[in-house]
Amino acid sequence: MSTLRNKVQLIGNLGNNPEIITLDSGKKLAKFTIATNESYKNAQGEKVTDTQWHNLVAWNKTAEIVERFLEKGKEIAIEGKLTSRSYDDKDGNKRYITEVIVNELLLLGNK
Length: 111
Description:
Largest sheet: 5 strands, mixed, barrel
Strand content: over 45%
Number of strands: 6
CATH architecture: Beta Barrel
CATH class: Mainly Beta
Order of helices and strands: EEEEHEE
Structural class: mainly beta
């Protein structure tokens, strides 16, 4: 059961081209977002689509794959872990962000 702790699996489409950062140490970091859609019928019988946006982060070899193959609109499947962090913005306000640290990535579709 310990392998089920903090495990996230998502299938979605990239919202924008990934942001690739090369750190001074030479390590690569990729930041990108994907949208997941869920459809259901409301009380009136109308189809409703709910879109959720997810912030993703990939490091090292996974970041290199992201840089090489991913672009806006591409459908992917990922597995990773959920993390939360906070930071102070330029105005001194505390901001909170939740991200998925990507461990595995699978390219889907042909967009």
